[in-house]
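thought: fold this chain, then report.
action: predict
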Amino acid sequence: MFEITNKIKVKILNFLKNDLDILDITNIYKILFLIIFWTSLWFCISVQPESIKYFGNNLIDTFNSFRISLPLILTFISCVIVIFVIFKKNNINKLNNIIFILYIYFLFQSIGLLLNDELKFTLGNSYLIVLGIGTLNIFLIIKFLKIDKISKYLFIISLIILASYLVVLICINFNKIDDFLVFSNFYSISKPGDIFLGQAYPRSTGISRVFGLIGIVLIVINSEIKIKNLKYLFYLIIFFCSLAVWGFQSRGTIICYFWSSLFVLFFFENKKILYKILFYLLAPVIIFYMSTYLTQMAYKNNIIVENFELVEEEKKKLSKEDREKLDLNTKNIIILNRFEQHGLQTSGRFKIWEYALKKYDKFKIFGYGVQGDRFILKDKYVDYGNNSSNLLLYAFISGGYFSVIIFLIIYLKMLIILIKLKLNKLQNKFKEPLIYKVSLSLICFFFIRSIIENSFSLFSIDYLIVILCLFIVDDIYSKEKYLKI
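observation:
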C-alpha cells in the first residue's frame, strides 16, 4: 500500500517538475487558483448577475448565486494581480499573444456602453465584459508564471465538462429517443421555456454544437492513434457524434461540423480520406434516415393502423378536398423533419443584418456597448432573432469601427499561420502536434460559425474555447524551438 502511494507521489512530482516546471508550494497554489478560476467560468455560463440577490432562498438559487459570484470575484482578484505585475515588475512584454488584443475590444465596448444614454453601466449590462476580461487575465497570468504548458490541461478540463454534460443529457433523454426518431429530428429535446437547475435549458443548437466539437476533437485524436482496437472505438464514438449532429438538424452546426471535418481530413490526413469522409460524414446521414423511416413505420402501425377502419369510414363522409387536407395533416404529424418543413433558408439573417446596419447610428465610433445588437433589434425582434447572428456585425454594433479591425487582425493572423504551415508542409512536424491540431481544427469550426452567429465575440462557450485555442496556437507558433518556419 505504502509502495503504491509512493509511486503515485513520485509520478505527481515528476509531472509538476517536467510538465509544469513547478515544485514550490507557492506555484502550486497559483496553478490551483487558475484551474478553479477557469472551471468557474465554465460553470457560470447562462447565469445572470441578478441570481446573486437570491442567495439563501433555496438550494438551487444559492447554487446559481455561487456560480456567478465566484468567477466575478476571481476576475476582480485577477485584475489586481495583472495590474500589480505589469506596473510593479514591468512585464508589459508578456502581452505577446494575439488574444490580448481583445483587451482593447472590451475597452471599446465599455466606452460604447458608457456613451449609450439609454443603458446604464451596471453589472447586469456589463458582466459579459467583466467575464471576458477575466478569461484573458488567466492567460496573462500563465504568461507571467511561464507555465504555458498548463493550457493543454485547461483544454482537458474543458473537454471533461463538455463530455459530462452530454452524458447527463443522454441519460435524461434516453427513453425518449424513439419518440424523437418518429419526428425525424432531436430538435425538440430542448424547447423555449424549459428550465434546468433554475436556469434556461440549453438550446438544441447549443447541444448539437457540443456533439460537433467532441466529434472534431475525436477525429483529430483518432488520426494519431496507432492501436487498432482503440481506433475502432473512436470510429464508433465519432460516428455517433456525427449522427447526433445531423439528428439535431441545426443548420449552423451541420455547416460548421462538415466543413471543419473536411479541414481536418485534408489538412492533417494523408490516407483513406474519401473512406473517412464516407464514414464520418455521409454514412451517419443515411443511417439516421433509415432509423427514422423504420421508427415512423412502427409508429404508424401501432398508433394509426389501430383506428384505420374507423378513420376510413369517417373519411368517406368528407368531401374530396377535405380528405386531401386530412391526408396532408396526417403526413405532417408524422414527418416533422426540419429541412422538409422549412427548407434550406437563412432563418431571416439577411433581413436582420440589413435592418441592424440601417438602424446603426454611423456617428457612434464605439458602438452601443456589449449586446448592442439586442438594443438595436429590440423594437422589431422581441424573442428569436434579437441578436445579429454574425460576429463582425456584432463587434461593429457593440464596439464600433475599431472592434471590427481587431477581429480582422485575428482572422488574418490565423490565416497566415495556416498558409505557412501548408506551404512548408509542417502541419505534422511541430512539437506537441496533437494539441496544436485540435486547436487549429476548433478555430476553423468557430471561424465558420462566426459567419452565421455572434460566436466568440462575447463571453460564452464559444469564447472560452476559441480564446484557449488561439492562445495555444499562437504561443506554440511564436516559439522557434517548437515550430521553425
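thought: worth noting. Confidence is low (pLDDT under 50) at residues 303-311, 328-336, 481-485.
final: C-alpha cells above.
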